[in-house]
Amino acid sequence: MSSQDNAARQANTGKTGDIVFKTIAYAAGILILVTLAAVFIFLLFRAWPLIGGDQAANTQTVESFTGGKAHNFWQYVGPLLFGTVLVSALSLIIAFFISIGIALFISHYSPKKLAVVLSSVVDLLAAIPSVIYGLWGGLILVPAIGPFWNWVAKYLGWIPIFEGPAASPARTVATVAVVLAVMILPIITSVSRDIFLQTPRLQEEAAIGLGATKWEMIKLAVLPFGKSGIISASMLGLGRALGETMAVLMILSPGLTYSFKLLQASQNQTIAANIAAQYPEANELGVSTLIGTGLVLFVITFLVNFIARKITEKASA
């Protein structure tokens, strides 16, 4: 066999491999879209009788399911959506700056051996099941944080969100936000750390060579380079907080109001925790109601990730 024949056979083999790999990659991408569409269609199909059906019958169903606290589906899901966004936003605010600080310490300040240990600890925290955080929050944090919330209500109660008296035990939105912040902190930290470590060495050395301090180098080179990654990490953490169930269910004293009173119990509830709490005892129409709230959560989560993707694209441009 001539060398030309061998070259032609190798070229054909390479083209075949490219075609197979491309087909598998396309199939994997399409499978994700099909799965996403299937989940959406299922939720919409099960919730449609309540969302778009006979409104009089739907009103009766919701009133019966909620004990008269809500008179239609949107009146029912509104406070739940408000509570979900409130708890998730608070947890992100608490976790964001701490996570970025830890990530910068690991990537640029700590000794190498300590950085390895801290990275392992952060990755371990990200792998802990949410029910463990719920147990820790309910059994340890709730009793321990009560005096602090009392102090906050006493001296900062003139601010509406800290209006007292603080609930005892502290099964409030503020406590849940702290627990969720601890849960999403390792996610944001881990992703941000990896982004910071990818900062081009030449950019860092150039900033130092021009006389910048280490913090100025981080501000001029590291943070701008990692901006899109920080946004992605934050949205990833926010997505987990939006869908968190067990930790919220085990700590929060639920309510169905539009309230910013973070230190008072029985004010808010999240969609995911409400589904977990109500599903075991719900009848068929009640299940449809809960699935409808799940559809709203699905759409909100999708919109959050979509917006985050657009922000990331602009930050990368």
UniProtKB/TrEMBL annotation:
One MF term in the entry's GO annotations: phosphate transmembrane transporter activity
Annotated GO CC locations: plasma membrane
Location in the cell: Cell membrane
UniProt keyword annotations, A-Z: Cell membrane, Membrane, Phosphate transport, Transmembrane, Transmembrane helix, Transport
InterPro entries: MetI-like, MetI-like_sf, Phosphate_PstC, Phosphate_Transport_Permease
Topology with respect to the bilayer: Multi-pass membrane protein
Family assignment from sequence similarity: Belongs to the binding-protein-dependent transport system permease family. CysTW subfamily.
Protein name, entry field: Phosphate transport system permease protein
Source organism of this protein record: Bifidobacterium goeldii
